[in-house]
Amino acid sequence: MTQEIHIESYFSLPTDLAGEMRSWPEFVSGAEYSVELRDATTGEQVTVKLIKDGDEQPYVSVSSVKSGILFDRVLGRVISALSRQSDNLMVDRMK
Asked: Measured over all CA atoms, what is the biggest interatomic distance in the chain, rounded to whole angstroms?
């Protein structure tokens, strides 16, 4: 079951989410707000990306088809990193 979380913020100060996770063994690739991670043992994959859809408020999407411990770790790191650059985050679970 796919799990996806959207995090809205002002994004006025850049946040290097890839840099936050580059040292993790699950890190596959990434730059700035885009990150791909994969757990070699469980096969769990997590994708992080900044979405800018026209007139809508930009948001960071954290998603995984097979969500587990890696998804939880990534989500926590993303929220922590973004909160250091903003006084307002809104987190939504997508269905």
From this structure: 40
Tens of pLDDT, residues 27-76: 999 999 999 999 999 999 999 999 998 778 899 999 999 889 999 999 99
Burial class (CB within 10 angstroms; exposed 0-12, middle 13-18, buried 19+) of 1: exposed
pLDDT at 10 over 90: no
Name the domain count of the chain: 1
Strands (DSSP E) found in the chain: 3-8, 27-31, 34-38, 45-51, 59-64, 90-94
Residue span of the structural domain in which 79 resides: 3-94
